[in-house]
Amino acid sequence: MVEELRGNPASPGAAAGPVVRLTPPPVLPEHWDAPAEPEAELAAATEALDAAVADLEKRAASVSGEAKSIMDTQIMMAKDASLTAGIRASVDNGRPAAWAISDAFGKHVAALESIGGYVGERAADLIDIRDRAIAAALGLEPPGIPDVDGVFVLVGQDIAPADTVLLDPAKVLGIVTEKGGPTSHTAIVARALGIPAVVGCAGAAGLEAGQRVAVDGGRGTVVVDPTDDHVRQVRAESDALKEKLARHSGPGATADGHPVKLLLNVGSVGGASAEAAADAEGVGLFRTEFLFLDRTEAPSVEEQRAAYGEVLRGFAGRPVVIRTLDAGADKYIPFANTEDEPNPALGVRGYRVGVRHPELLTAQLRAISLAAADHDADVRVMAPMIATPAEAAAFRDLTREHGIGRAGVMIEVPAAAIRAADILAEVDFVSIGTNDLSQYTYAADRMLGELGELLDPWQPALLALVANVAAAAKEAGKAAGICGEAASDPGLAPVFAGLGITSLSMSVSAVPAVRAALTDYTLEQCEVLAREVLSAPDAPKARRVAAEFAAKSGG
Ligand SMILES: C=C(OP(=O)(O)O)C(=O)O
Question: Which positions are catalytic residues (predicted)?
Fold first, then answer.
């Protein structure tokens, strides 16, 4: 019988091919002898670190944008003089090359991890260089994606952030990881690149290099050693999907023309290329944290004005929703957040920071209003982490004082979703952040892959909250969009349309599949589908209901 493994559906689409396993990080042998010639060990350690840096520099030269900036930062960290000093000190203490590298990096990794949040995540980048240098010192293969010819399905524990930037959709047909949930870094990158992916698939540990697998990223299944017929079917499905995507262009709409705007999530100045901007109807979420991270004080009004203007320039005549600073929790910013919160996800983050540091919020609103006057985009502004109607009203008043015409808030706290009607009475629009809304609804840390099942966007309680917000917005005659990762799931797009959601905001590469999925049904069919999906008792059954609906209605 054909074996089928199950995991979290992370990036839709189907693919079949041979397994290539990520090379695991090196493990230092338990025993070591103090080297007879410390100088030779020092030379070996330095050579290994130099080789790892040279390899990074080579890879950085072949990529651009965010990938390049991540790698440039890694290279800078690897060239830090204190690392070389640490290696020397360790060798002087009688440690061989590979162990000395591990010691020297250890302190830096621990320091970053203790800060937590975004800065803490940089520890993974440092660990990546450490492992590459240790592998070089031990004469082992570098960890990460092996350099192989041909196409393959990439399988491993999880993909390091430094490796995700090297994923080439022309070679990587699919991704299967043992760890990770639907909002993990691997899942987000896979969706952004349009690579079918199943994450948190415990059975993936047993998959061997060269073994053939068929990945269904929409259902979260991996068929091991599929039959030739099955592979033919997967390839036919994948070709049919590509053809379908190519057939559709333009604004988002259901089969009978009911509009659902297709917007972009942008997280950096270079995040919306001209090509991307051309294929979308605007920006539904412009994350501004990139300007504030990795620095000791806030950027000036003029610096912010210029940075926002760079993005606005590409969207003349179209809406751009700028989100005010969402500092805190996974985006720790030293001058905005306090270090000693016991539970930062439930702490002073998002709009709550703006209340305690009004100078940050007002400077940002001033910069946004100046940038809006400089350009022809239809600029709107929204606040993150709003929990009460009073907060929404205070934010609206502040935006009006700055002459920004349209003010909205994110709905990412269950309290706000439950009382959406009262929140909507205060603002012009709302946008649902399903990443945080899942986290808070299911009391499941969005960074914890282990809890991926609870963070599944098909979970009924999350969908019920989305339905409540959409109904309140319809009643108020105002817009309710979605800008969390759920918006990029083509399976959910008609469900959201049926609930009354007016826009879906996502990464550029998710747009074609979501656009095509909206055309599967008329608005009336979307409404029936939404009712059926909403009545399912759990996420897998909700997906099954949608699949059965597609089968009976030819969608
Ligand atoms: C879009 C969201 O915000 P963040 O930037 O925190 O992912 C969300 O929470 O869904």
Answer: 185 (tele-phosphohistidine intermediate), 483 (proton donor)
